[in-house]
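okkk here we go again. third time trying to get the zinc ion bound version out, last two times i messed up the smiles copy paste (missing a bracket lol). double checked this time i swear
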Amino acid sequence: MAKELSCREAGYDCDFMVRSEKEDELIGMVQQHARDVHDTEMSQADIRGAWKTV
Ligand SMILES: [Zn+2]
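finally!!
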């Protein structure tokens, strides 16, 4: 089972989408993207609440 998170589903006008079976890796990628592109910090809890299992 992989986890998937997309900016669009989180309400951003952004085509970023990431899917990974490694939760730690996905969290890291999303946090980096949020910082670089959206100038915001996402906590692990935020990300765990936003992803879906695919
Ligand atoms: Zn984005």
